[in-house]
Structure formats: structure tokens, C-alpha cells
Write a structure and sequence with these properties.
Elements (H helix, E strand, L loop, with lengths): L1 H14 L1 H13 L3 E8 L21 H6 L4 H4 L1 E10 L6 H16 L5 E5 L5 H11 L6 E4 L12 H13 L9 E4 L2 E4 L4 E2 L8 E2 L7 E4 L2 E4 L24 E5 L7 H7 L5 E6 L7 H12 L3 E6 L25 H11 L6 H10 L1
Helix pairs in contact: 6-10
Bound molecules: D-glutamic acid (DGL).
D-glutamic acid (DGL) binds next to loops.
């Protein structure tokens, strides 16, 4: 009986005009909380004129960038934090670790509902994948950037940032792994890569496609990310000061073994081979791989080819180096770095590449 009376009273209260406005106010006041971590890039870039192609990345502050996007404040309660202001070819391990620490602190203390990272596009896919493997939370983390400077005619950064905030604000974005939003596309950090050096349609996911699209400030998802990520990841980098040094060696016609042998003789703990075709390389490189493995360097076979990945059905090689499956060389390097924080065992490294 008491329940019925209290429900009736609530209905009466909500039917009164002033309560609806209070209630509505409550609703508008409970906008999602989104923190934007700014690292630099073209989205913060400045050119001498609105039509000049060359520009300086990492010039505008995050508050200037947010101010340049009409209506973005309607999407969420925004807070901008300037982590760095660099061109992303200058990305550093310390910035990765600072991004991870900031996100983990924000989510662990329920200080926001989603995080957006503004980033240069050259290494955006790498930062996104690193965070996809290490941010052990379900709340959305979305990276975005721009291919035209903020001062350019038809700059793409403002709408990319609007879309990124809209995606990070939406509860439907939770537990999908780290995402990249560029040119209205939603990509999974797991398979996105930069496939055009200058065009505003610069990103794709060869062989997989986008996860979905942003339309009218709302995400339309068309597929899930099936690899293990974020809250299901085993990689705990809390307290990690540096990651195992892991390099990439590019294979090509009559490639020498100078580079790979120099890496083996350095303090590298891991090497990824960007092989030709299905992760192949010549006998020079093959000999050096055997030398590296015998000296305890972890080596993974990837491919310079955009689609198809590398699996274990290789040509008649007797080398036991694990394969990268669908990870391109730059992604395989990140996964190998993190795998090496847990194991040096070839079989375990291969299992990790099959799962992540
Ligand atoms: N130097 C590039 C970078 O910061 C500019 C490209 C961009 O951000 O779009 O990644």
C-alpha cells in the first residue's frame, strides 16, 4: 500500500509544471562528463594562410581548439588538459605513460564518463593501440586529429573533435575498446591505420573496415572488436617506468642484415620483421633472426603488406619466430613490447598474438 501511495505522489509531483522544469534541469545538468587530453598535432596546427598546405602542428592550446567548435559544449561538460603540444612523429614513451596514468586516474576515481585524446595523425594508431591494450576500464576512450591545420579553409579538426566528444559521451560506446574517429568514421584501435599521407580521408582498417559512422552526433555501430582489449586485458603497466625496447626491421629485395644485426647487438629486447609478402625475408635476414633468437631477442614476423596478416602456414622456414596474425608491424611492435613485460617464451608470445 505504502509503495502505491508513494508512486502516486511521485506522479502528481512530476505532473506539476515547476517540477518538470526542475526535473528537466536535473537532466540537462547531468550532461556526460568528458575530459579532452590534448597532445598536439595538426588539429592544433597553424598555417600562414587558410589555403596554404604547409603548417606548424602543435600550436593552438586545447582551450582554443574547444572554443573553435560550435555547440560542442552542448554535448558534455568538457574539461581540457594539455598533456603536450607536439607533432606526433615526436611522440615519446613518457607521454604514452602519462596518458595512461591520467586516464586510469580519471576512470578509477569516476571523475569523468569518457576521454577524448587529440593527437597528431602520424602515430595516432600506435597510441590508440597501446591504450587499447593497457587502459583496463570499460568507459570510452576516443582519439581524433586532423589532416588540415586548425587555421585552414574547411579544417577537418573541429568536426572530428565534435564527433569524438559525441562518441565518448554516449553510453553505447562503453566496452568497445579504444576507438579512433576521423572523417565521420569510427575505427577500432585494434585495426585502424593511416593509409594516406595528406588526404582528409586518411584512415582505414584494411581487411576489416570501420566499426561504424558518426551521424548527427550519434554513433551507428556496424561491428564489434573481437580481439581482447581494455578491461579484459592482462597488461598491467601501473608503475612501469619504461617498456622493453622493441624495434622494426623492414625487408625488401636483396635486403642486407646490417640493420637487424645492429639491433641485435644493441639493448633491444624485441624485433618485429616487416617481411615481404606473407612475412617472408631472404637468407641474410633469416640467419640474423636465428642469431637474435639464440641471444634471447624475441622476434615476431609481420608483413609490410597492408592486408592479410601473417599466420603460421609459412613457406618452408624452420624458424620458430612467432607470427603477428592481423597486426601490422607498428602494432606488432606495441604488442610485443607489452608481451615482453610478462614473458620471453616464444609459445606464450604466439598465444598473446593470437588473442590480442
Ligand atoms: N606531423 C604530423 C603529426 O603530428 C601531422 C599530421 C597530423 O597531425 O595530421 O602527426
Amino acid at each position: 500500500m505504502k509503495k502505491i501511495i508513494s508512486r502516486l505522489l511521485l506522479l502528481v509531483f512530476l505532473s506539476l509544471p515547476f517540477s518538470r522544469s526542475i526535473y528537466a534541469d536535473q537532466l540537462t545538468q547531468s550532461k556526460p562528463r568528458v575530459v579532452i587530453l590534448a597532445t598536439g598535432g595538426t588539429i592544433a596546427g597553424s598555417a600562414a594562410s587558410a589555403t596554404q598546405a604547409s603548417y606548424r602542428p602543435g600550436v593552438l592550446s586545447i582551450s582554443q581548439i574547444i572554443a573553435s567548435v560550435p555547440d560542442i559544449e552542448k554535448l558534455a561538460d568538457l574539461k581540457g588538459i594539455q598533456i603536450s603540444n607536439i607533432a606526433s612523429q615526436d611522440m615519446e614513451e613518457r607521454i604514452w605513460l602519462e596518458l595512461w596514468k591520467s586516464i586510469d586516474h580519471l576512470f578509477s576515481n569516476d571523475l569523468c564518463d569518457g576521454v577524448v585524446i587529440t593527437h597528431g595523425t602520424d602515430t595516432m594508431e600506435e597510441t590508440a593501440y597501446f591504450l587499447n591494450l593497457t587502459v583496463r576500464h570499460t568507459k570510452p576512450v576516443v582519439l581524433t586529429g586532423a589532416m588540415r591545420a586548425a587555421t585552414s579553409l574547411s579544417a577537418d579538426g573541429p568536426f572530428n573533435l565534435y564527433n569524438a566528444v559525441a562518441l565518448a559521451s554516449n553510453p553505447i560506446s562503453a566496452n568497445r575498446g579504444v576507438m579512433v574517429v576521423m572523417n565521420d568514421y569510427i575505427f577500432s584501435a585494434n585495426d585502424v591505420t593511416k593509409t594516406h599521407t595528406v588526404n582528409s580521408d586518411a584512415f582505414s582498417a584494411p581487411g576489416f573496415g570501420a566499426m561504424g559512422y558518426m551521424r548527427d552526433g550519434a554513433p551507428q555501430f556496424y561491428r564489434e572488436n573481437s580481439n581482447t582489449h581494455t578491461s579484459s586485458s592482462v597488461f598491467d603497466i601501473n608503475g612501469v617506468k619504461s617498456l622493453p625496447v622493441t624495434e622494426i626491421v623492414y625487408a625488401y629485395a636483396f635486403s642486407s642484415a646490417v640493420a637487424i644485426n645492429a639491433i641485435i647487438d644493441s639493448n633491444a629486447k624485441g624485433i618485429v620483421i616487416a617481411g615481404v609478402g606473407h612475412g617472408n625475408y631472404n637468407k641474410e635476414i633469416s640467419k640474423a633472426i636465428e642469431r637474435g633468437l639464440s641471444r634471447g631477442v624475441a622476434i615476431v614476423r609481420s608483413s609490410r603488406v597492408a592486408e592479410g596478416g601473417v599466420d603460421l602456414a609459412a613457406e618452408n622456414y624452420d624458424i620458430k619466430a612467432p607470427v603477428s596474425f592481423n597486426k601490422n608491424p607498428q602494432k606488432a611492435r606495441i604488442l610485443l613490447m607489452l608481451a615482453l613485460t610478462r614473458t620471453k617464451d616464444c609459445a606464450e608470445i604466439q598465444r598473446i598474438f593470437a588473442e590480442y
